[in-house]
Each structure stands twice: as C-alpha cells, then as structure tokens.
Amino acid sequence: xxxxxxxxxxxxxxxxxxxxxxxxxxxxxxxxxxxxxxxxxxxxxxxxxxxxxxxxxxxxxxxxxxxxxxxxxxxxxxxxxxxxxxxxxxxxxxxxxxxxxxxxxxxxxxxxxxxxxxxxxxxxxxxxxxxxxxxxxxxxxxxxxxxxxxxxxxxxxxxxxxxxxxxxxxxxxxxxxxxxxxxxxxxxxxxxxxxxxxxxxxxxxxxxxxxxxxxxxxxxxxxxxxxxxxxxxxxxxxxxxxxxxxxxxxxxxxxxxxxxxxxxxxxxxxxxxxxxxxxxxxxxxxxxxxxxxxxxxxxxxxxxxxxxxxxxxxxxxxxxxxxxxxxxxxxxxxxxxxxxxxxxxxxxxxxxxxxxxxxxxxxxxxxxxxxxxxxxxxxxxxx
Length: 383
Prior knowledge:
The chain is built from 15 helices and 15 strands. It is of the alpha/beta class and 383 residues long. It has two domains: 2-175 and 369-382, 3-Layer(aba) Sandwich (Rossmann fold), CATH 3.40.50; 188-367, 3-Layer(aba) Sandwich (Rossmann fold). A seven-stranded parallel β-sheet has the order 3-2-1-6-7-8-9, sandwiched between helices. It has a six-stranded parallel β-sheet with strand order 12-11-10-13-14-15, sandwiched between helices. A two-stranded antiparallel sheet has the order 4-5. Helix 9 (218-231) crosses helix 13. It is globular and about 70 Å long.
C-alpha cells in the first residue's frame, strides 16, 4: 500500500504541522506502508534539502510564506493508493483535489484538518474567498477528515461540512512521547549555556517566531510579563525558544520595556535538547490570539514534562488544558488578565507543584502517543 504525505512545511522547519507530519510518516512506515512525503523544497536559508529518498522536496512554481504551488503533484500522485493531505496547504491542496477528480486511477484522500487560516487586510480577503469557494470542494472530496479536536472543528470553517457529513470526521488528538518529555532535574549545563538565573521563576514559551506564526501572541506575553514584574516582588525570567523573521521585532519590544536581561531569546534549539529545556521551567505559557492556534502540541510537551500551563481559551486549545487541574485558561489577547494569572500561579509554590503533577497524569492518560498510533493506522486500514 503506497501512501503520500502532503505537507506545506516539513522539518527542519520548526512548526506543529511539520512535526505532526513527521510523526505520521514514522507511524505509517512502521505499519508497513510505503510512504513518501511531498513538501516544498527549502532554500539554503531555511535549512537542508536532504532527508532521503522517501522525502521529496519539490521546487515550487510560486511561493508565499508556507503557501506553495507544486504542479508536479498532479502527476506524482497517480501511483499512490492513499493521499494524506495536511490542511491548510494553499496552492497545492487544490492540485491534490484536481488529481483526485481527474486522474484515471482514483486514490483515497485523507485530510488532517489542522487549523483555520486567518489574516488581515488583503490576505484576509483572499482567505475569505478561499474559505467560501475552494475549501468546501477540497473537504468534500475527502474520504476521511481527521481533526485533533471536535471542539475546534465545530467552531471553524468546516463546521457545516461536519454537520452535513459527520461520518467523514474522526477525532484523534495529537500525542506526545511521555518518555522523551518527562520530569527531570534541571540540567546545569543548559543553565550555564544560556546564562539563566538560578533563583528566578522561569516562564517558558516555545513556538515559531516568523510571520506565519504571528498568532502565537508573543508581544502580548512580553507585555504581561513586564506588568507582572512591575506589580510583584517575585523574581522571574521569560525564556523564549524559537526563531524566525519576527524575532528581532520581539527582541526590540522586550528592550523597549527594559527587559533585555529578563527575557532570554534562546533561538532554535536541537530536538534532543528541547525536552531538557522544558525541565528548566516553572510555568509554560501559550498566549495565542486567534484560531490560527488549533491545539498546541507544545502544551502536551510541557504537561508531559510535569510543567503546569497557561493557554488561551480558544476552541481546540482549551480541550488540552484542564482548568484549575493541569493549568489555567486565559482570554486570548488580554495581557492584563494574563498578568493576574502569572501572579496567581507563581506566588503559590505548593499549588504549582500539584498542577505540574496533575498535568503529567493528564498527558499519560489521554495523550500518550503510543496509545494513539493504532487509532491513526486504523483509518488507513479502513478508508
């Protein structure tokens, strides 16, 4: 059985969709499926162009951000039994749809619906047009649609499709490696490498810092952190892991607030180093501002590491956080309330430890990736 994975951004590009696609690729390979990933080629600036014969990096006819037109897909998909499209993938999802519609040999189409694209101004108008006229055709051609959260799907652009075709939809939350991400002692070598304070409470953020990830809400987090320091005597530092075109702007915001020594931009970190970065934190924050954030795999990584979280009260994201048990939910885009929650969380050491312990238990019970693999493979067996 031959499977094609279609994804707009694949490692080494840092992002949740690419991370999910990589894990799906591994699961399918382990399950005996002959699997090939098709993704836009990377420039030298964005990473490497390797990855072996199973990773096909196609040169795009046009590209804008993570959108790319890959006309080659129309011909390359003709010999596959199943195509697994990670949506959104503007510019190439349409080609997958055309290939399914026009090819003589019909493949089964499975779509993982990651999130609803959002934007402002002219880009927002394009997304609106796409949402109304093109997206329904792509979803309508799918044999199965995987969503990480029914809550998110019911509050997104696919809600009408879900109501009309509930049999197409399957909810499978994203998983986490609970042995890779787990509670550990703080690694002294990392503290020294990144010049971190040892007496301060550490607030952690992990995410892309490019324009495509503007919805992560980093400026709101920096503002809330500044207010927190102004309103409390608690010594704290904010650690931001990630890289991208907006990093300089975020560094400037921190500088303007007088936080040059309190906000540590680690930049990109190696995959084998990341689990130990989580262990340095007392609290993890994901302050996303809109439905561009649909789930938040980083929340699972933090929870599995025994770190309580504060996350935006958004569809999908809120399904990961057990309010008052594994962390807190915060209104999106509201730094004032986030400031209060930072004060509440970091002022009670004993409660923070209990929240972290409970977060780890939630991760083990509901999001252990080994428990979720079979459910994922079953979709491909039965499509």
